[in-house]
Amino acid sequence: MHDTTSTSRHSVTNGLQTISYLQNRKGIIEPIQGDGWAPVNDVNRQAWLEIEKKVHQSKQKVTSGRFSCLHYYMTVHQMTPLLLARSTRQPVWQVLLHLLPLFFNRLPPATLEKYSALFQIAPQDLQEGRMHSALDSRC
Questions:
Q1: pLDDT at position 128, please?
Q2: Could you tell me the pTM of the whole model?
């Protein structure tokens, strides 16, 4: 057995294998035993709470008419306008305009199709402003 405070052991967190490391008494980094690392779990939990808060705020902005439902899906998928523009091969300024209901409601079918394909939803959902609870599936 190694001269360390604990032995190697993989843990499972939400179906994913995780492993933590610690320096032993001889200065060698080794895997440590445990069922997960509490600080990592706490940080992940806090991050998801923050994401859920942003999604809720986005949904309110869309419902109040300040933004198109594209804003909601962009937020759920943790995208910025730049990332959304790159993912759909459009200029950023166009994506920014599409976030506004006035411009979004005039989008041609081909542009709606780009967004619906990216977010894996029906184009009609975008046209009708339906906001699926995609966060439940952790998109």
A1: 86
A2: 0.68
